[in-house]
Amino acid sequence: MSVQQPTKNYTLKAVSAQPEPTLTSARKSLRWEWMRRNLNIEIAAAQASRVVEGHEERRIQYYSLSSSNRRHFMMHVIRAAIEDTKLLVSDLVFELGISRNAVETMIKETSENDWVAVEKDGKGHKHVWAKEVLVNCYYNYSKWLFRSVKSLNLRKLTEDIVRIEALYEQMEQGEFTDK
Asked: CATH topology for 21-172?
């Protein structure tokens, strides 16, 4: 005859107010790995490592990567086109934090290349937005970026970090108790 032992349900209990050193080091290691993989993507993007189809897209790529101001300008006008809005020059000056002259120069360069549309309203205010060729170029870049993130498994790594951070927070708040 066997005697059945009483059962008691246990959950984890934090022994101290601080999370375990192994959890802390795991979180730090995962964050560093995420940073390393993301940095590889950013370096590839900044060095125009992405192979592009066509001469015009390559010109757009080189232009947008030639300076941070140009890159930011291009992103803003592309976003305006995607959101079906038009940017005032004064908005671009404010958003980019550069002189009106510098913004006007970029508008001139990109409109001469037929990458942006420019129109003046009845008050003489200039409005700017990306043309389809520029939006399509960014769409191709986004597809490359997605494939890069997917191939480096950044999504899974991000999910792992989120899980560890949730455990970390629960331990800090003492949510693991003996029942």
From this structure: Arc Repressor Mutant, subunit A (1.10.10)
- Give residue 168's pLDDT band: very low, low, confident or very high (50, 70, 90): confident
Q: Which residues of 30-52 are buried (b: 16+ CB within 10 A; e: fewer)?
A: beebbeebbeebeeebeeeebeb
State the number of CA atoms in the 13 A half-sphere of 144 facing the CB.
17
Q: Annotate 98-143 with DSSP letters as a single string.
A: S-HHHHHHHHHHHHHTTSEEEEE-TTS-EEEEE-HHHHHHHHHHHH
3-state helix vs strand vs coil in the chain, percent to 5:
65, 5, 30
116 forms beta bridges with 130
Which of 21-30, 94-103, 140-149, 167-176 is least confident?
Answer: 167-176
Q: How confident is the model at residue 4 (pLDDT cuts 50, 70, 90)?
A: low
- What is the three-class DSSP state of 88? strand
Distances (CA, A) of 72 to 8, 14, 62, 99: 60, 47, 14, 14
- Cβ–Cβ under 8 Å, residues 110 and 77: yes
pLDDT of residue 53: 81
